[in-house]
Structures are given as structure tokens and as C-alpha cells.
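Dear H.,

Thanks for agreeing to be a second pair of eyes. The structure we're designing against is below in C-alpha cell form, covering all 392 positions.
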């Protein structure tokens, strides 16, 4: 489930499409997932379990050992840190390559004395280990925390699923369903409503905008609630912002894709988190870009690998003034949005999961990026209405 689940599923599907035979070992979360797993293009071995706890490590060591000797694998990939130690302890049982992926937050979470001792005792990051980071930021954070030769850490940006490029509901129909007038500029955010995602910063930025800019803007906020006190604060700030702000709650990926197609730009302004949680990459920016949305984003963590500054979006420092200026530019400058929308779509096409799997596993990547769709984006007429580009 969540971002790691997306990573594991997409990497397995992409490697399969490149000709590899893939087995994914994953928990069942207390559910019957047999029919869901049958629809996947790779084999899934489920074990009884859910979210990781340190007391699960002995069981995962046994599980990994048994799976490694059950078949002849060329690669054993620990896609997330709960399997780093179990996989490391299984290395003597197989000549397979051993790969670990670091995503960001777990690098800080493994700095406790007990975890560092366990990592050192089992030589998790020993000479046989190939270390893959999901962004340049994560690579540098790992190198800093573990004092490792940076040449041993490979930064491989994540990919974006083909799903986000697929046909979606007509823009006019979606805007009508949500009651969005043709002359409104729609800003959309998709993230859990937690403090580190920075919705409160964007709200404060909106409150500082000129009245005429706020009147042109509608902000659609998609995502499940996070900390209760923070959500209450967001609702209060939204009511005081004198702007059309709508909290839509969680939506399906299909509904989000349709909503992206009806919007004008994406906005997510994360802030540094004192708890040690970091934004290792920022996949949601790529998903929005795949539908042709430029982004307003803060340059924290690995976000600069997902949003190319002044090309696919506006990257700013996490301050109210900088965010407000970026939003105002997006609202008032149609040519800027159109230019960035085109580059955002090209950027998303380039960062495919096939490319990510090929770089990680050393597979031949015979597939081209998704550019077969004729990099075109809708354009806006002087009247403010949007039209699809004519087919060539």
C-alpha cells in the first residue's frame, strides 16, 4: 500500500514488460487478494502481515531465506528497508545480485543506535550491495548519513504509470460536474492533509493575493485527512481566505485523472519536517504532469527531480511570499502555463517506469518513452475556453 506499494508494483510490471520473470513478496494486510493478484502480470507471493514492526524481522528473515533458496534468482531486490536485513542475511545462499532502494525517510529512521548496530552487524550495505536512491536528494542524504563513497549510490528517478496518460473524461464535462465556470483558473492539490505537505502555506499565500487574482481562482484540494488539529486549522484558514476553496476528500485515481484534465495547474508546497520525514521524490507532480499540468512546488527534498525549475513548473523556497508570487504568476500568465504544460508532459513521457526498471536491474530497454502520443496539450483561446488540439 502507499508509495512503496506503488514503487514495487510498477517496477515489477515494467521489468516484466522488458522480459524479466518477476516474483513480488508482499504482505496480505489481512485481506483475500488472490483475485487481485491474478490480474497482475507478475507472480505475487503473499505472507500474513501488514505494516512493518521491528518484531516482524525474525519472521521476515525466515521468509526471505526460504524464498531465496526456493528458486534460482538473478536479482534479489529489497524494495524497502524492512527487508534490508532479511535480504542481506540471505546473500550467502545465492549468487544473485543484491539491490536495495532507499526512498528518503527511512534513512533518517534507521539512525537509532540499535538499527545502526543491526545494519552494521549484517553488512546490509556491504560490497555486494547495489544501492539505488529515488532522487539526487535521497542519494546525498544517504551518503551523508552513512559516510559512504558516493560512487556506490545510484540516483534513479522514479517513473510515472501509463495510467495517467490514458484517455480521460472531457474537460468541459468534468468542469460542469464540479460547477467550475469557464473563466475560472483551477488549481488542484493531491496529498494527505498533513502539515508537512504544506497546504497551510498555500492557504496563507492565497490570503495575501490581490482580490482580483483570488476571484479568478478555484482551489480543489484532494486527499484524506491527516492530523485532526491540522485539518481543523486548514478548514478555518480556508473559510477566512476569501477564495473559492473546496476540500474534496479522497478520490479514486480515475477521478483524480479526470480532475487533472479539468484543471489549469497543480500546486503542492511541502515544508521541511522536524520529525525526519522527507519528500524523497514527489511522484504526484509527475502524475499531474502526465495530464499536462505545470506545478507550483517548493524546492524541498527530491522534488527538484520531479519538477524541472522554470521549465515544468515554478520551484520556490517554502515561504508564504514566494508561494504567493508563484501562484499569481500561474493565474495571470496564460503563456507561462501553456509553455510549462508542454514541457511538463514531455518530462513525464521521458520518465517511464520501463526506464526506471531498466536502469535499476540492467535490463535492455527496447521500449521508447510514451512519446508516441504526439506531445500535445490543450490550449486556451482568448475567450478563456479550452480546446483540444487538432489532429495532424
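And this is the sequence the design step returned. I haven't edited it by hand at all.
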Amino acid at each position: 500500500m502507499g508509495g512503496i506499494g506503488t514503487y514495487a508494483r510498477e517496477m515489477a510490471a515494467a521489468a516484466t514488460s522488458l522480459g524479466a520473470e518477476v516474483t513480488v513478496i508482499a504482505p496480505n494486510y489481512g485481506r483475500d487478494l488472490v483475485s487481485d493478484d491474478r490480474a497482475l502480470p507478475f507472480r505475487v507471493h503473499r505472507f500474513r502481515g501488514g505494516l512493518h514492526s521491528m518484531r516482524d524481522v525474525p519472521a521476515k528473515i525466515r521468509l526471505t531465506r526460504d524464498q531465496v533458496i526456493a528458486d534460482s534468482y538473478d536479482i534479489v531486490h529489497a524494495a524497502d528497508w524492512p527487508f534490508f536485513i532479511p535480504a542481506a542475511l540471505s546473500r550467502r545462499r545465492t549468487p544473485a545480485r543484491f539491490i536495495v532502494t532507499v526512498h528518503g525517510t527511512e534513512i533518517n529512521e534507521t539512525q537509532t543506535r540499535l538499527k545502526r548496530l543491526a545494519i552494521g552487524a549484517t553488512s546490509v550495505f556491504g560490497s555486494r550491495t547495489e544501492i539505488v536512491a529515488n532522487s539526487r536528494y535521497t542519494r546525498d542524504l544517504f551518503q551523508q548519513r552513512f559516510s559512504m563513497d558516493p560512487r556506490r549510490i545510484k540516483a534513479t528517478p522514479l517513473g510515472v504509470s501509463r495510467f495517467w496518460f490514458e484517455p480521460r473524461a472531457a474537460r468541459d464535462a468534468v468542469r460542469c460536474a464540479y460547477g467550475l465556470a469557464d473563466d475560472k483558473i483551477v488549481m488542484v492539490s493531491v496529498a494527505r492533509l498533513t502539515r508537512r505537505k504544506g497546504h497551510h502555506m498555500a492557504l496563507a499565500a492565497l490570503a495575501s493575493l490581490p482580490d482580483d487574482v483570488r476571484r479568478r481562482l478555484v482551489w480543489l484540494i484532494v486527499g484524506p485527512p491527516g492530523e485532526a488539529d491540522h485539518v481543523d486549522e486548514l478548514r478555518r484558514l480556508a473559510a477566512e481566505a476569501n477564495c473559492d476553496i473546496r476540500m474534496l476528500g479522497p478520490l479514486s485515481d480515475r477521478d483524480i485523472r479526470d480532475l487533472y484534465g479539468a484543471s489549469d495547474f497543480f500546486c503542492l508546497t511541502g515544508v521541511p519536517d522536524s520529525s525526519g520525514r522527507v519528500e524523497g521524490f514527489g511522484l504526484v507532480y509527475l502524475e499531474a504532469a502526465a495530464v499536462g499540468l505545470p506545478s507550483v512546488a517548493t524546492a524541498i527534498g527530491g522534488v527538484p527531480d520531479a519538477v524541472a525549475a522554470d521549465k515544468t513548473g515554478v520551484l520556490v523556497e517554502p515561504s508564504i511570499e514566494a508561494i504567493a508570487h508563484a501562484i499569481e504568476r500561474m493565474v495571470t500568465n496564460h503563456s507561462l502555463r501553456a509553455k510549462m504544460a508542454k514541457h511538463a508532459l514531455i518530462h513525464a513521457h521521458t520518465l517511464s517506469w520501463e526506464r526506471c526498471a531498466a536502469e535499476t536491474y540492467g535490463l535492455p530497454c527496447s521500449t521508447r518513452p510514451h512519446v508516441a502520443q504526439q506531445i500535445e496539450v490543450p490550449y486556451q483561446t482568448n475567450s478563456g475556453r479550452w480546446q483540444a488540439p487538432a489532429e495532424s
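Two observations from my side: Residues 2-155 form a domain with the Rossmann fold fold (CATH 3.40.50.2000). The radius of gyration is 22 Å.

Warmly,
E.
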